[in-house]
Design a protein that fits this description.
Layout lengths: L18 H18 L3 E2 L5 E3 H8 L4 H5 L3 E3 L5 E4 L4 H9 L9 E9 L11 E10 L4 H17 L5 E7 L5 H13 L8 H9 L10 H8 L10 H16 L5 E2 L10 E10 L7 E12 L2 E11 H10 L13 E5 L2 H16 L4 E3 L6 H10 L4 E5 L1 H6 L1 E6 L5 E5 H9 L14
Parallel strand pairs: 1-5, 7-8, 12-13, 12-14
Antiparallel strand pairs: 2-4, 3-4, 5-6, 6-11, 7-9, 9-10, 10-11, 14-15, 15-16
Helix pairs in contact: 1-5, 5-9
The protein binds one RNA strand of 77 nucleotides through helix 3, strand 6, strand 10, strand 11 and helix 10.
RNA sequence: GUGGGUGUAGCUCAGUUGGUUAGAGCGUCAGGUUGUGGUCCUGAAAGUCGCGGGUUCAAGUCCCGUCACUCACCCCA
């Protein structure tokens, strides 16, 4: 590394070619699929009043307590960069009146958490989130989960695993915590240090401890649904049977835990092997959030796009293969040809042909190399001979075949359908 | 916040028990073809060996500190 000052700050990255081609592809596919499910995009600010997050995520959550970028602005307002997307969307919906309470919305954008970075974890990261608001019934949960599976396979992702559980109703929580504590008490001194702390604070978290001894103990616990109301159990069963009918493969995992406070009923997670320790691609669930005198009920998920990118490239997808090279590279010899080519280039672009040329007046060989490196499909050569004759050499870079054409012929060839590069069918090798 | 690993050319890395002008491959640029890319050949540019201090006749190599990157824990996408 040269000077550290050229680097973005810790945990944040420039999204640049070639990786950016994959980001663009993901976003295009996403918008297409979400439109099919009749979801609309919403773009909320990346900053909110800190209270928005405290109220919706729970002000005892780690995300709120120690991971937010919070500050006081010049007006004395307590603001934070958003650590997740749901709170802002719900704030928006709550403020938009009755009609918007049936909102079906999605967002794509950066989120910020002040954590120590590691594989799959960044301080600025990007999420695709979907919120289906105002239909408090299992069909809404199943629809969103089906949508999520659809998006993942449309991106070309393989070998992901969906696991489902229920958080129960708010009034179930105390019973679950008490029930787990009672069941764990005999083994309390065999739990790891973290889990002994969790026993007091949040016994649910013991279920997904990575420590082997804790896992053994957790394996023998009754499923959390045992401590829940019949309503919670029925809701979960209905979601699962709907997913079976939609042929969405999910696994029920009674040990699955989701951290944010706002979840009720269904919670789920999608993981992918080969992401390292942070193997969750996505997490979702049903929630009830109170803003002012309104309670907004919804179901949704957030996907970590950096992790998706890691999984896709790990599958062998080369982001560079998604680049959109220029169809034509213009090559000039001499100042007059250079000047004419600038005009021709603009004219081609106005007619829909992507093209480029070397602007530094380098040697023909250097220009050819540049055209080749840019992966241009064609090269148009213009030198003294062509300037005299009023012609152009059109060279096909794939087979090396070169033809001499006049202006009408050239335009015809380059603007007709067959000779234009289709961005989605690149050559492979 | 806690712990481990790593910092040598644009990239990937080599550098022997400390020993003269720090190397390779890829990439870049140029030439071999004064009008032609992708292959081949030749050459060139490019490194304050992360930074600071220390030990030593001598430090890329050893010691200390520091910064950065990285992996893991807590927690989470």
């Amino acid at each position: 590394m040269t000077s550290e000052s050229f680097q973005p700050i810790k945990g944040m990255a420039d999204l640049a070619p070639p990786a950016i081609y994959l980001w663009q592809r993901l976003e295009e596919t996403t918008r297409d699929i979400l439109a099919r499910y009749a979801f609309d995009e919403v773009r909320t600010p990346v900053m909110e009043r800190t209270a928005v997050f405290k109220r919706s995520l729970g002000d005892t959550t780690d995300v709120v307590q120690k991971e937010m970028y919070s500050f006081t602005d010049r007006g004395g307002r307590d603001l934070s960069l958003r650590p997740e997307g749901t709170a802002g969307v719900i704030r928006h919906v709550a403020g938009s009146g009755q009609a918007a309470q049936d909102a079906r919305l999605y967002y794509i954008g950066p989120m910020f958490r002040s954590e120590r970075p590691q594989a799959g974890r960044y301080r600025q990261f990007h999420q695709l989130g979907v919120e289906s608001i105002g239909a408090p019934c299992p069909a809404a949960d199943a629809e969103v989960i089906a949508l999520q599976a659809h998006v993942l396979s449309a991106w070309g992702l393989k070998d992901f695993r969906m696991e489902l559980n229920t958080r129960g109703l708010p009034e179930d929580r105390q019973r679950v915590a008490d029930g787990l504590r009672a069941a764990l008490e005999p083994d309390l001194d065999r739990l790891c240090e973290d889990c002994r702390r969790r026993y007091a604070q949040n016994p649910l978290r013991i279920l997904d401890c990575k420590n082997a001894a804790c896992r053994d103990i957790a394996d023998r616990l009754p499923p959390v649904t045992e401590f829940m109301s019949a309503e919670a159990r029925t809701y979960l069963k209905e979601v699962i049977s709907l997913l079976e009918r939609l042929e969405i493969p999910v696994t029920e995992n009674p040990r699955l835990v989701r951290g944010l406070d706002y979840y009720v009923h269904t919670v789920w997670e999608i993981t992918h092997a080969g992401l390292g320790s942070q193997d969750a691609l996505s997490g979702g669930g049903r929630y009830a959030l109170t803003f002012g005198n309104q309670t907004i009920e919804g179901v949704g998920f957030a996907m970590g796009l950096e992790r998706i990118i890691t999984a896709l490239t790990g599958q062998g997808l080369d982001p560079g293969s998604l680049a959109k090279p220029p169809s034509v590279w213009l090559i000039s010899q001499g100042a007059a040809a250079f000047d004419e080519n600038l005009v021709l280039m603009q004219s081609l672009r106005l007619r829909g042909v992507s093209c480029a040329m070397d602007l530094r007046g380098r040697s023909m060989k250097a220009q050819m190399r540049a055209a080749n490196r840019a992966n241009s499909r064609y090269v148009v050569i213009r030198g003294d001979h062509e300037m005299e004759q009023g012609t152009f050499q059109l060279k096909n870079m794939a087979d090396g075949v070169q033809e001499e054409l006049d202006m009408p012929e050239l335009m015809q060839r380059l603007t007709s359908g067959t000779d234009r590069v289709c961005p989605d069918t690149e050559e492979e090798e």
